[in-house]
Amino acid sequence: MKKTISIHIAGRAFFIEEEAYENLQAYQQKLENWFRKRESGAEIIEDIEARMSELFAAQTPANGVITADKVREVIETMGQPEDFSEAEEEKAGDTEGARESTSSQLPLRIRKRFFRNIDDKVFGGVCSGLAAYLNMDTLLVRIIFVLLPFFSVGAVFPVYLVLWLVVPAARTTAQKLEMRGENVTVSNIERMIREQYEKVRSKF
After folding, report:
1. How confident is the model at residue 203 (pLDDT cuts 50, 70, 90)?
2. Cα 190–Cα 194–Cα 77 angle in degrees, nearest 5
């Protein structure tokens, strides 16, 4: 019989084996040490823990126990922060290159999901979210939505409203990465938050 511990990860309660807890704690401590003194480090750690909580919730049966194997799987999915340090130093400022490097190291890709992109919205972010999902230019999608009423007798308006109500907004960093079809890993979460930080800072 293995000893289990009750823990909370990003507000969700889990039961976890003692060995698995020790492995998870060591990983979280490594993340703390890595990001503690970095810009937006606290936000990065918070988003990483939120994603880990989602993975554990999705992959662990109801009332089940997180095992050491499951912790190893989640850590492999998220990646180690130091795995990407050399690539960052060699390609500083080259976001696209870093993205390709990350994808090559982690071949497993998540399924792209349709979210409303509220970071680039005119009304509800439906058009920009659809553009990200279809790999199209946002302006082109908006032009199509503007022109469609002339060919559909205004039917596009209720369609837009339904999508606005039904499609969730990409609020978390993980959701924004899923909207782009990118892996939700430590390095991509860090890159996304830094991009958002630089975008906000440039406005001021």
Report:
1. low
2. 15
